[in-house]
Every structure is written in structure tokens, then in C-alpha cells.
Here is the input.
Amino acid sequence: MTIPPRVLTVAGSDSGGGAGIQADLKTMLALGVHGMSVVTAVTAQNSLGVQGAWELPVEAVRAQFRSVVDDIGVQAVKTGMLSSAGLVTAVAELLAPLDVPVVVDPVGVSKHGDPLLAADAVEVVRTRLLPLATVATPNLDEVRQITGVVVDGEPAMREAAAAVLKCGPRWVLIKGGHLSGDAVDLLTDGSSEHWLRAPRHDNRHTHGTGCTLASAVASFLARGLDVPEAAHAAKEYVTGAIEAGFPLGGGIGPVDHAWRQR
Here is the structure.
């Protein structure tokens, strides 16, 4: 009996199913790994935005993590929405002893611009969480939030990557989806560069893109790919999911995590 690789997501719940824990688990299923979850927060969320968010107690997060890791084990971890300094600190303490790849998606704002990270938690992300990351996957808003660097074009992505790398991750994947032109991301460890390019699809239904990309990287790392290989494979997967994104409700619909199965 073949047991698939096991990947744990530590993130918030999106009641609309397009991002957060729901997007992570859909991505993991689509990419052939067994997804498990530690829920850090519950949101009331739909295609129009986030109407409410409730953080879970640190004790509940610790208990979920220990329950999964101590019995089932993990081969990669992905972190997402960690809304407070206390949660970031607790998750960093849980991750520190693990000897598996960790993908940190430093979620700061939602697709609709709703804040998802408390101001006093940003410094803890810098000093406690990012140093544990095998790969950090900030978008341009999160780069500015973490480092103060404003990216207005591809040349500035190198400066952004260098600033994030100073926080301690082994690799950083700067997501340039908010720029004009092709969808361009930069993966670097400070010595080698990998520019990931894809055509920009004319589709506004892109909810969950960041969560999906980070979960895809974690899934491919759990399957044994190295970081550049995992990033390239994840980019291909998320590009197809964006192209197949579909409308839901009255706002921005989700990417299609099952595009390869349809």
C-alpha cells in the first residue's frame, strides 16, 4: 500500500472555499499529497471580501499541531494566516524542532485589501518565523509590509528579495503578480536566480492565488523535488488554475484547483 507524502497547512479558514485552508487542501489533493490542517482563525468570507475574522486560542493551535505531527508526521509544512504576534510566536516554536521543508506565506492582506496580520505581529514574522522558512513567498504588498521596499517593476524585485533574505529564509519567491505585463516571479537564495514567467491571463477570478502557490511549492517539496524544481512546477500549476478561474457570487471568484482533472 502506497502512502502519499504528508503536508501540513497552518492557516486560516476561508468560508467561501477559495483561499486559506480550503485552497491549501484542494491544492494538495490535486498534486498527489495527503493534506492535513491546523486552523488558526475562522473567517466569514465570500467573493466580496472578509466580513469577520476570529482567531483561535493559541492552546487550540498547539493541540492541533501536536495531534497531527506526533501521530501522523509531516514531510513539509506550509504556513498562511497567522493574525497575531502570539500566534506567530507559538507556531514558530512548534516549527523550530522539525527537520522538514517549511514554506512561509506571510499573509498580510486579503485579495480585497482586508488586513489579516496585526501590526505588532510583523516584527515577530521577521524575527521568529522567516528564519525557519525553506521558502518564503511574499507578494509585493507583503514585501512592503515586512521590509519597507516598494516594488514598481522587475528591477526592484531583486532589491525586495535581498531585503527578505536578510530576515533569514533560505530561499525567497517574490510574487510579481501585481505588476503589469507577464506574470513574473523571482526565486533566489541570494546566489542563484530563477525568473518564473507565465502569460497573464485575462481573468479577474484569482482568489486564492497566493495560498495555492505556496501550498503547491510545499507539496512538490514533500514529493522530493528541490526548491527550484518545486517552484517551477508550482508556477505551472497555479498558472493553469488562474486561467481556469471561475465566477462565484458577485465579486472575485476562485482559481480552479481541479483544472487538471476537468
Observations:
- The radius of gyration is 17 Å.
- The beta strands are 6-14, 34-46, 49-55, 76-79, 102-104, 135-136, 171-175, 183-188, 193-198.
- The CA atoms of residues 147 and 159 lie 10 Å apart.
